[in-house]
Amino acid sequence: MSPRYDTLFYDGSCPLCAKEVETLRTLQRGNLIFADIHQQWSANADIPSHEALLRRLHMKTWTGEWVVGLPANVRAWSHTRFGFLFRPLLWPGIYPVARFIYERWADRRYEKKYACAIGT
């Protein structure tokens, strides 16, 4: 049976993203691969556009499925011993609010071209 690795695509030029990835690298159990979208992205039918990768966190699971946004973040943290703290964000009563907050933050991050967004 082959190893089951998920790949997290992140914005390596974003200080907040880089800090979270640094923490995940330290805490993960070895089944999570990190791909800086500024170094790993190429025009490939199997990978979302560079803009899509900048707008939302993306993870490609070991089964080939794409997980995007808040669920990608929760799945990334599931590779650590702290995953249980993030799982409630996907519960039916919490998910709509958590997703709304995540998406508003992600949109603002992208549209305002913070130091971690495209064009800076």
Automatic annotation (TrEMBL):
InterPro entries found in the cross-reference section: DCC1-like, DCC1_Trx
GO molecular function, one term: protein-disulfide reductase activity
Tree of life domain: Bacteria
Pfam families: DCC1-like (PF04134)
UniProt-recorded name of the protein: Predicted thiol-disulfide oxidoreductase YuxK, DCC family
Organism: Marinobacter persicus
